[in-house]
């Protein structure tokens, strides 16, 4: 019996297959580009208008600037205390990230590698804690801070931000550390390493993508938290840059160029943190979801 073999037919089938794959990828890329444009284009529009005057923005909102004039940035540095607000934000957000990574990493290691009583109950309580709105705790926390005398200090934001992000950090790091092979840990124990050495020398380096992911999300949530800053640090000397941006909107509402400049200045640290840590984000978010 003669086989029905046609090289031309096989070639046509292969060609149709790759055309179908290419069209699928084309559609996916177009959807992703359209989605990304909803974030990128407004940011580019604001950056463009930061080099223009209010009159130019009102007359032609989408036109390019005649020249890259830094007058708005100079006015921002003279009229609003940007450097002090930057310092406050970086101190509070940076300290929050360090504390969350330290305590969240240790808690995640314990939850991933130890078996103890009430472990399932604690896991459930961690999930429940994620469902509690932060606004519910503002009044009691504020009263505690008044009695402690730390309102209008860096601790007034560092403590609630750290506590609020520990739950997410513990879940994220615990899931990632659970995927680490037990043979590595057993070999370290046989070599005489203690638990702290295993955590710092094995689990922390292996879990760098998860730590980077937790770090960037913690930084974003802490850096962008306007509500807590308005409540716990009303003193201008310790207010973060998000409060400054809110004040610019209320005090200089008619100066559109200055508002655009304040937005760009506020966004710069977030973009830098993301650019530095972006290669770890997807790996940290996905690898811990699969145990292996």
Automatic annotation (TrEMBL):
Domain annotation ABC transmembrane type-1: ranges: 86-277
Membrane topology label: Multi-pass membrane protein
Coiled-coil boundaries: none
Main location: membrane
GO biological process: transmembrane transport
Record has Transmembrane as a keyword: yes
Membrane-spanning ranges: 26-47, 90-109, 121-142, 154-177, 198-223, 256-277
A Pfam family reported for this protein in Swiss-Prot or TrEMBL: BPD_transp_1
One cellular component (GO) term of this entry: plasma membrane
InterPro entries: MetI-like (IPR000515), MetI-like_sf (IPR035906)
Record key words, sorted: Cell membrane, Membrane, Transmembrane, Transmembrane helix, Transport
Localisation: Cell membrane
Family designation: Belongs to the binding-protein-dependent transport system permease family.
Protein name (database record): Raffinose/stachyose/melibiose transport system permease protein
UniProt source species: Halanaerobium kushneri
